């Protein structure tokens, strides 16, 4: 799912977010929902980042 102005860095993030929403049956109703979902996804991204960094050392 690519959009007209997406950069190569944004496309995987959009795909990951779309998959997360589908897998967890999340329905977005308003901006508050979007903010909480984005926060959850970002926390997962940071955890994965730090785990990979830790494993490399």
Question: Could you explain how this protein is built, in words?
Answer:
- The chain has 57 residues and is mostly helical.
- The chain is 70% helix and 0% strand.
- It is built from two helices and no strands.
- The radius of gyration is 13 Å and the shape is globular.
- The relative contact order is 0.10.
- The model has no long low-confidence stretch (mean pLDDT 77).
Write a short abstract of this structure.
This protein has 57 residues and is an all-alpha fold. Helices cover 70% and strands 0% of the residues. The model has no long low-confidence stretch (mean pLDDT 77).
Query: What is the number of E strands?
Result: 0
Q: Which term fits the overall shape?
A: globular
Radius of gyration: 13 Å
Q: On the 0-100 scale, what is the average pLDDT?
A: 77
Uncertain regions: pLDDT < 50 for 5+ in a row? none
Structural class: mainly alpha
Task: Report the span from N to C terminus.
Answer: 35 Å
Counting DSSP H or I runs of 4 or more residues, the number of helices is 2
Order of helices and strands: HH
**Helix percent band:** over 70%
Largest sheet: none
Strand content: under 5%
């Amino acid at each position: 799912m690519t959009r007209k102005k997406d950069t190569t860095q944004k496309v995987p993030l959009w795909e990951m977010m779309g998959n997360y929403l589908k897998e967890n049956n999340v329905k977005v109703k308003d901006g508050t929902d979007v903010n909480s979902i984005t926060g959850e996804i970002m926390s997962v991204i940071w955890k994965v980042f730090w785990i990979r960094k830790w494993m490399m050392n």
